Amino acid sequence: MVAMNSMGTKKSKLSFFLFSSLLLILLATLFSGAQAIKGHGHGRLSSLREATVHDIQHAFKQNQLTSRKLVEFYLKEIERLNPTLKGVIEVNPDALFQADKADQERHAHAPISLSPLHGIPILLKDNIATKDKLNTTAGSYALLGSVVPRDAGVAAKLRKAGAIILGKASLSEWSNFRSNNDPNGWSGRGGQGKDPYTMGDPLGSSSGSAISVAANMVAVAVGTETDGSILAPSSINLVVGIKPTLGLTSRAGVIPISPRQDSVGPICRTVSDAVYVLDAIAGIDYNDNATIEASQYIPKGGYAQFLKADGLRGKRLGIVRDLNSLAIGNDTILSRTVEQHLDTLRHRGAVLVDNLKIANLREYYTSSSENILLLAEFKISLNAYLSELVASPIRSLADAIAFNKKNAKLEKIDEYGQNLFVEAQATNGIGKVEKIALANLTRLTKEGFHKLMIKNNLDALVTPGYLVSTLLAVGGFPGIIVPAGFDYEGTPFGICFGGLKGWEPKLIEIAYGFEQATKIRKPPKF
């Protein structure tokens, strides 16, 4: 109003200019409440979207940001985006309470506030148990209202590190092991998850963790993998995923498929964020005996020390063109991009050992051995998990099958079926057929991936996309996938670096070096 009445003189024009400038600054400040947090003479966190753990911790220290404001931001983003993306299945009603507690600890300079994850919101895949007000259901109504005996091992470690459990991420129901016809990213409770870049298939089964991180509905997340369930959604949602060495992270309290292949790992926007999460969740959990043996691989001082910008220098990286062809197909854009990345690896000091062969590569992907074992292991391990619940609508795989039949419409059984459940129920422990399958997988690993790595003195195998996951899964080997670009349809893809058991330090150096050299990651545009 003042500006409207003061257009007549030079003085009033100047006043109008000053007023308008101040008004624009004020509006910009208000608008940036969800995006920019102004500092106090110590720099500025320009945006909470894409903010790394390091950015957030720096803002905490400079009094630019509180955990409460951070949680409020993510809750608003979930409210805004999740109805479309379906990346979050449930929000923790105590998230703001946890945020206030973290702010108080930081103000009091409590020792826990020195942890990199202190006050950082995190989503856990909805097959990871939390002893709180959140459900743990694997996306199924069959487990809604069940009561777990304790936090999963990784959830307990995250709480100890001061992380805020923001909620549960959606997933492919029962971690993609109910039916061959279930769509990736779909669950009865969570609906159909969508890749925020294409609004299409988000891949599975840790789809919600990848969707939520990619769309900036949370800072960091945790997923699980039996075969491809971290690497695949991370690839197509343009985020970083770490599938650790088997047993490096605890599976206790995680709704299982196979103790021989299940892993729990980070899904984040950057390699450094993923490594901070890995540092927090790796280690011994006496509720999972595999962690005792795998703890020998954890380096003194943790994994963050391997975040080296020149981590590619001197590394021997193997290229198996036959495996690359499976991922690339006839996509010339993808092929060209991959070749550019290989050149980048060379220019950054890596030694590329090209045109390698895995003699039994085709057998990895055509053999029925993995599926034979998974069916039997699923029945055994799921029944054991369900039997330990304090309360549950179901107590066995047979109960789950019956529940689905009774609630066919709710669980879309008529549309998608539950053939894997039925096939698993028909198994009878680890018998002769399963032992033959196990021996076959052991042979494939020994004569295939393991021999390739040792014979050629490799530090990692480099492959586009996630199809290497089967080689890593059946051997219990680690892999890290990093954003690498887009194919001809605009669908994101990653570059995966895989190694032998305990090779996380090498893989982190390589992955971080590649990330810093390329910096492909960018947020989706809605």
UniProtKB/TrEMBL annotation:
SUPFAM superfamilies: Amidase signature (AS) enzymes (SSF75304)
Keywords (A to Z) from UniProt: Signal
Signal peptide start and end residues: 1-36
Keyword Cell membrane set for record: no
Domain Amidase: 70-464
Pfam families the record matches: Amidase (PF01425)
Stated name of the protein: Amidase domain-containing protein
Organism: Carpinus fangiana
